[in-house]
Structures are given as C-alpha cells and as structure tokens.
Design brief:
It is a single chain. This protein has 473 residues and is an alpha/beta fold. The protein folds into two domains: 238 residues, Alpha-Beta Complex (Spore Coat Polysaccharide Biosynthesis Protein SpsA, Chain A), CATH 3.90.550.10; 226 residues, Vaccinia Virus protein VP39 (Rossmann fold, 3-Layer(aba) Sandwich). The protein is elongated and about 75 Å long. It starts with a strand and ends with a strand.
C-alpha cells in the first residue's frame, strides 16, 4: 500500500552518454515499503542529445512517473534544482545528479532517518566509513574539506561532506527556502540555510563513483571561490523564507525574553487543558505548554506542523494537529474539550473574524476562556501589516463588539507592549519595510528587562490589545 511519495530531482546538462542509464537505475532502485516515486528531470538547455534520451526513456517506460522540464537557457545546477523543488509533490525529495557518480540503490539507506521522523534533512557523506569510493583528485578533496569546515564554522555544524550531491529533505522545508544560487553554490547555500532554519540534519555514509574531467566532471576552481562567497552571503542574508509571514515569525523566535513577557501576561488566565490556534514555529508554545495536562498546538502550514512535531513531540501531554481556523469541520474533533483557547496574532489574518470566534466558542467547555491578542490601532496599519497578511488592526471598542457578538462574556481587556508602538509605525509607515530586522529584534529583546519596567508609564498607545473572554456556564 502506497502511503507517501518521494520526489527525485534530476538537474540535467549535457549528459547524453549517462542519463539513460541513470534513469534506468533510478526507476529500478528499491524504496522503503509504502513509498512511491516521481522523477522530475530539468533539462538546463543541454546542447547535446540529453533531452532526447530522456524523452525516449519516458516513451519506453510509460509506467514510470517522469516529468521532463526545459530551461530556455543554461542557468546552472542550482537553477535546475530550484525549478525541480518548486514542482515536487512528494513528502520527501532527494537530489540526484544526472551522471553515475551516486548510486540510486542507496535511497533506502539515505531516507531512513527521514522516514523514522528523526531528521528534516539527510546528507549522504562520501567521507564517512562506507562501502567503496573511487580515489581521485587530492586537491579537489582538500578544497571540499576546507569548504565543509568553513560551512561548519558559520553554521555550527559538524558535517563531513557539505558538497555532496545526495541531499534528501522534507519537500515543504526546501520549498519554503528561497534559493539564490544558480550554479554549484547551491550546496553551501542549502546547508547554511537549513542550519539557520534549525532543521535536524543527519549524515549517512554513501558510496561514490567519481569521474574525471575527461569523463565529464563539470565543477571547477571558480566554483570553489563562488562557494566561499555563498557561505558568507547565506550566513548574513535575511532571505530564509519564501513568504513574509514565516520570516516575521522566525525573527520573533530570536526574542525569547519578549515571548516570555507575552506568555506571563496571559498565563494567569490559562487553565490546564489548552488549545493554541496558529502556533506557528512554537514561539509561544514553548512558554505555555509546561505544566499543562493537555496542550494541543495547531496550525494550517505543513512546515510549521512539522516543526511543532519535531520540537514538542516528546512531551506526553502535547498533541500537534492541523486546524484551519476558517474551516468548521476542523473544529469538530476538539469540540468542548478545553478550558482555554489561546489565539495570539491570528484573528487579524482572517477576513471573517466573527465566524472564526464563533467556531472557537465551540472548542471551549462551559466556563472556559479565550485568550485573544490582536494588533491595536488602525492608524498604525503599514507595509509590515500588509506584508504579513493583516486584514485589519483593532480598537478596544471594535474588539469588544466582535467578541460579544460571538456570545462570549468579556472579562478583561488588557494592553501589551507600548514600547514597540513607535518602532512598528516607523518601520511600516516611514521606512515602508516588509519584514522585521533580525538584528533589531535581538537588540530589542536584550532590553526587555528595561521595557517591562517603563512600559506602563509610556504616554502613547499599546501595540497590542488582549481580550480575556469567557464562554458562559
């Protein structure tokens, strides 16, 4: 019985001699039970007969699920893999060079940590103790070790083979990362960005049947210098997400003191059976889930759900679940089970906020509470709000009205973090920024001890308002 799909991503450029045999091996390779395969070949404007070989193979193997995509100009391996990742439909993906240096018969070994749920990314290392390895090019090997060492330094990893072709990963993780490199800089870029995204990276030994330059090897000295630049660029860049919303959430993960401040503000009203809507990367889950008898962290994004399972799955009281706040059927399995629903920085992303609050009402047992935080002040709406998908910002009056329309009793209306109000307005309305600065978030977080002392005495509006609402007995 097939339960999951593996996407095999093959960048292709001038490999007429090898690609037919490579495809035969890929199709014949055994996969773990329950795993099917799709093969995505991206022809990077080959000037030989490579594309025709692939087309002939597809014609003679109609049972194989193979897609051939063409670039209209040669762009490089990174660009071809970028195209393939966008098209991938599998839960997992693996990059497979179109020559015969790497052996598809090792897919089962390579995928094992992913399938067991231990890893987000698996590197196939040519330098760990393994089977056989063709001995070639000392200077090429030395450059590889030096680049791997530098990549380890900037990423705080201990990889043995950063430059390996065999990188297997959860597809949604790779699809959520913007890939900038067009050529072989793909390898260090993915490595550094996987590390900065806090992915769980494993290595496993693989065989390697390298070829000489006379046999068609393409990577050269200039690619080593490019890799150096890519390592530095990937360490410094803020482009770790394809979407602005997750990028903003990731920036907030750099502010643990601020997250703790928010959690401590709402904690006095939280009970022992909690459901969190829009848990995201778990910034608030981490603060609230301890000492709860039951805690269900929900989200709609598959990448966030994977992060939540990876980060909190070991807790016996924790459950991670898909819940789309706009879909009534998603609420049914949880109806009436909780004494607390936490909904922080979510409602402003939903056009039908009243309908959502009425659905949240169904989750609570009689007497249960909703802890609802939203951004304050329509006059503060700017480019940051638009970029991360805010439909609106609330006033105390408008929030009270919609809460009461959903049949809740409003117990308290709290304010939160006046200190960030001027900065938010300046960033989104003067600078017209579309994301938060990670370095700025870090500096702000270091001074949270000070902000907490002065916040209530500041004369301007708060950045957020919190409604403590109760389902009547």
């Amino acid at each position: 019985m097939i339960t999951s799909l593996l996407s095999i991503l093959i960048p292709l450029y001038n490999e007429e001699e090898f690609v037919g045999e490579l495809l035969r091996r890929v199709v014949a390779a055994s996969l773990p039970a329950g795993l099917d395969r799709e093969i995505i070949v991206v022809n990077d404007c080959s000037t030989d007969g490579s594309a025709e070989v692939v087309q002939d193979f597809i014609a003679t193997h109609p049972e194989a699920r193979i897609r051939l995509v063409h670039h209209d100009r040669n762009q490089g391996k990174g660009a071809a893999v970028r195209t393939a990742i966008k098209l991938a439909e599998g839960e997992f993906s693996v990059i497979q060079d179109s020559d015969l240096e790497y052996d598809p018969s090792e897919y089962t070994h390579l995928l094992k940590p992913l399938l067991e749920g231990k890893a987000d990314v698996v590197f196939g290392s040519r330098f760990l103790v393994s089977g056989e390895r063709r001995v070639l090019y000392y200077w090429h090997s030395l450059a590889n070790h030096l680049l791997t060492t530098l990549c380890n330094i900037v990423s705080d990893l201990n990889l043995t083979d950063m430059e390996t072709c065999y990188k297997a990963f959860r597809t949604t993780l790779a699809q959520s990362i913007p890939i900038q490199s067009d050529r072989f800089g793909l390898e260090p870029e993915l490595t550094v960005k996987f590390a900065r995204r806090r992915a769980r990276i494993y290595e496993t030994p693989i065989s390697y049947h390298g070829r000489t330059y006379a046999e068609g090897k393409k990577i050269g000295l200039k690619d080593a210098f490019e890799a150096l630049w890519v390592i530095v660029r990937s360490k410094l860049t803020s482009q770790l997400y394809t979407d602005r919303g997750p990028q903003a959430l990731d920036a907030m993960s750099l502010a643990p003191k601020f997250n703790r401040w928010m959690a401590e503000t709402i904690a006095p009203w939280a009970g022992k059976k909690v459901l969190e809507i829009g848990a995201g990367a778990g910034n608030m889950t981490r603060e609230l889930c301890p000492r709860r008898r039951k805690y269900v962290a929900t989200d709609i994004d598959p990448e966030y759900l994977a992060q939540l399972r990876n980060g909190f799955g070991h807790r016996p009281s924790m459950q991670v679940a898909l819940l789309n706040a706009t879909e009534a059927e998603h609420y049914v399995p949880f109806a009436g089970q909780f004494d607390t629903v936490v909904c922080l920085n979510v409602l402003e992303h939903i056009e039908d906020d009243l309908g959502t609050l009425r659905r949240i009402y169904s989750l609570l047992e009689p007497g249960g509470r909703l802890l609802l935080l939203v951004p304050n002040g329509p006059e503060a709406y700017g480019t940051l709000d638009a970029a991360i998908g805010h439909f609106r910002r609330y006033t105390r009056e408008s929030l009270a009205i919609v809460v009461k329309q959903a049949d809740f009793e409003l117990e308290e209306m709290l304010t939160f973090t006046r200190i960030s109000w001027p900065g938010w307005r300046f960033t989104g309305q003067v600078l017209k920024a579309t994301t938060l600065s990670p370095s700025g978030v870090r500096v702000f977080d270091r001074l949270v001890w000070l902000w907490r002392k002065v916040d209530k005495s500041l004369p301007w509006e708060p950045a957020s308002i919190i409604a403590i609402a109760r389902r009547p007995e």
